[in-house]
Amino acid sequence: MTSDRVGPVQVRKVSPIETRREVSLFALLRIKTGVMKSVLKPCLVLILALAAVRFSPARAVEAVYQVTQTGIAVVEITAQFENRPDGYWMRSISRAVGIGRIFASHEIRSEVEGSWRVEGVAPQRFQAEGNWRGDARRTVLLYREGMPLAVEMEPPEGIINELVPLPARRGAIDGLSAFALMSRTVTQTGRCDVAGPIFDGRRRLDWSSRTIGAARVNHAGQKIESLQCGLESRLIAGVRHGDDRARATQPRLAIAWIAKVDERLPPIPIRVEFASTIFGTMRMELQKLK
Question: Which residues pair with 12 in a beta bridge?
Answer without folding.
Answer: 195
